[in-house]
Amino acid sequence: MMVERKRYRMGAIKHNGYTFEPEFSVVSQTGAIHVYHGEKFIEEIRFEFNGDYPQHDLIEELVNHYLHEKHL
C-alpha cells in the first residue's frame, strides 16, 4: 500500500529582499523553509515538528536564527 505524502505551504515571510517560504508534511512530521533572495534560491532550512502542523513560533524562531547567523 502506498502512502500519499502531501506537503503543505504556509505564508511566506519577507525581510530585506529575502523571502522565506515554509512547507511541511504532516505524515513525516518534517518541514523546510526555502530561502530566496529576490528570485534566486539560496538554501533550504530543514526542521521537524510534532502535531498537525508546525507552530508559527517555530518558523519565526528558525527565520530569526538564520537572519542572525547570516548577519542580515
Order of helices and strands: EEEEEH
Tally of strands = 5
User: Helical amount among residues, as a percent range?
Assistant: 10-25%
Sheet with most strands: 5 strands, antiparallel
The class by helix and strand makeup works out as alpha+beta
Q: Whole-number radius of gyration? A: 13 Å
The rough form would be described as globular
**On the 0-100 scale, what is the average pLDDT?**
89
Low-confidence segments, given as residue ranges, are: none
Task: Describe the protein.
Pfam families: DUF5370. InterPro entries: DUF5370 (IPR035314). The structure is a single chain. The protein has 72 residues and is of the alpha+beta class. It has one domain (13-69). It has one helix at residues 56-69, and strands at residues 8-9, 13-15, 18-25, 30-37, 40-48. Strands 1, 2, 3, 4 and 5 form a five-stranded antiparallel sheet that branches. The longest helix has 14 residues, at 56-69. The mean pLDDT is 89.
Task: Furnish the topology, listing elements before pairings.
Blueprint (H helix, E strand, L loop, with lengths): L7 E2 L3 E3 L2 E8 L4 E8 L2 E9 L7 H14 L3
Antiparallel strand pairs: 1-3, 2-3, 3-4, 4-5
